[in-house]
């Protein structure tokens, strides 16, 4: 597998980006390091238009995909990685340092698509955004000044990804479940948990008044932690459908 | 020698920078990675004033040294390294790839000051500027799009310098589920699959006459593949108990 093919499989996903300069800077770093597929989720409309029309904007920006939700933007990816400036270990997610993260991502790119998510300038990725991620990547910045500029964070991540390609490991034989499959599984599981009485609340807006993480996010994260193969995801889908049918009959 | 002392000895030198946003971005990356000594040579006066007064500007900017010439800015350094986007080997200078360059710079920082020079946004470092350098550092960008944004180039260089300082990654805190938990989970799952009709055969010796792998083994392997933490195993046990109770009621 050539490096080109592997770089082709990365999707850089900018979520709720507000500043056109940052979208432009992210695109420039992508072009510098050879990752050409940008996706934007719910960008500030004007920012995206400005970035696209900026002088010297990469053709990459013109081709960028625009999505309404994280779920849609990552649906065809088998690994979804969020970036974070958090110092403490996130209690809900496994956090990898960038060097280790890059190794795992490179390995996965040998066989499937990977989405790398960057949150908004002010608040980073929301808990809902994070619930779509298999795990998080952290750049080891100083404790007293953790938060990086968005364009610089993208540059450092892509640099690290491109860095050691010569020593890239063998491709995995394991075919991983796509984000779309995992989202179907999450949804069936929530149905089964509600039908069984394990979850009391209906899947309505009312759930959002709870102070703890909403059950949807909790189950979404649980499903991502399982690291399912495409085959096992299919197996689980079948199991849950049968259980659900029985619970309802 | 502590990392602090070594980081203290680096001087990031911006030569003829024009855009205040780039000075600010360079300062931010320096603060992120813990290199706190900035020097500017002949900046566009207004740009430097704007950068200094920007919201959230690092104290680092307030303390930045201002110089009239490269010679003055690097006078107290024992190694002067220029950065370049040039693809071809510069005939006048030895060019090192960033990884090797970082190793040499780190070594030197153990005993003396090192200056790392970045040129203007448009033209990079002039031949005159370069003549003050011992050698050049190159970030391996794509041939078709070599030139990096100044703030991003600074971020990548400082990241690479800080990168291996503590080479050992953090140990995992992840507590894995015990085999006993996994076996309980397997057993509950088989019960649920039978109660739901997903599996037809009872858990009797009769199952063993089948030629394919017995369902017990199939499900046991499936559960092991999940690589569950102790906490998630507990969560799944609770879910399965509830589903089973509902299926049987």
Notes on the protein architecture:
2 copies of one chain form a homodimer. The termini of chain A are far apart. Chain A has 2 domains: 3-167, SPOUT methyltransferase, trefoil knot domain (Alpha/beta knot, 3-Layer(aba) Sandwich); 179-248, Helicase, Ruva Protein, domain 3, CATH 1.10.8. Chain A has helices spanning 3-8, 20-33, 45-53, 59-62, 70-74, 98-109, 127-130, 150-163, 179-196, 215-225, 230-248; strands at 10-15, 38-41, 65-67, 79-84, 95-97, 114-118, 135-138. Chain A has a 7-stranded parallel β-sheet with strand order 3-2-1-6-4-7-5. In chain A, 47% of the residues lie in helices and 12% in strands. The longest helix of chain A is centred in the C-terminal third of the chain and has 19 residues, at 230-248. With 249 residues, chain A is α/β, with parallel strands linked by helices. In chain A, α2 (20-33) links the parallel β1 and β2. The first copy, chain A, contains 11 helices and 7 strands. Chains A and B meet through α2, α8, α9 and α11 of A and α2, α8, α9 and α11 of B.
In short:
Two copies of one chain form a homodimer. The first copy, chain A, has 249 residues and is of the alpha/beta class.
Task: From the structure above, extract its key features.
homodimer; 249 residues; alpha/beta; Alpha/beta knot; Helicase, Ruva Protein, domain 3; 7-stranded parallel sheet; 11 helices; 7 strands; 47% helix
């Amino acid at each position: 597998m050539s490096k080109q093919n592997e770089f082709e499989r990365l999707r850089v996903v900018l979520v709720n980006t507000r500043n056109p300069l940052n979208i432009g800077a992210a695109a420039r770093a992508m072009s510098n390091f050879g990752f050409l597929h940008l996706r934007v989720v719910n960008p500030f409309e004007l920012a995206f238009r400005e970035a696209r029309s900026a002088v010297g904007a990469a053709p990459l920006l013109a081709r960028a995909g625009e999505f309404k939700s994280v779920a849609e933007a990552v649906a065809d990816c088998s690994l979804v990685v969020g970036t974070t400036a958090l110092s403490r270990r996130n209690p809900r997610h496994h956090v990898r340092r960038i060097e280790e993260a890059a190794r795992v991502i490179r390995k996965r790119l040998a066989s499937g698509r990977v989405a790398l998510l960057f949150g908004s300038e002010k608040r980073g990725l929301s808990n809902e955004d994070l619930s779509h991620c298999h795990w998080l990547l952290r750049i080891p910045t100083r404790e007293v000044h953790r938060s990086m500029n968005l364009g610089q964070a993208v540059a450092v991540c892509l640099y690290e990804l491109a860095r050691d390609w010569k020593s890239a490991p063998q491709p995995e034989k394991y075919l991983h479940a796509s984000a779309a499959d995992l989202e179907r599984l999450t949804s069936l599981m929530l149905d089964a948990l509600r039908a069984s009485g394990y979850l009391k609340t209906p899947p309505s807006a009312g759930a959002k008044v709870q102070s703890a993480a909403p059950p949807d996010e909790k189950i979404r994260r649980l499903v991502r932690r399982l690291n399912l193969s495409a085959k096992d995801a299919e197996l689980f889908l079948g199991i849950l459908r049968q259980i659900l049918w029985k619970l309802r009959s």
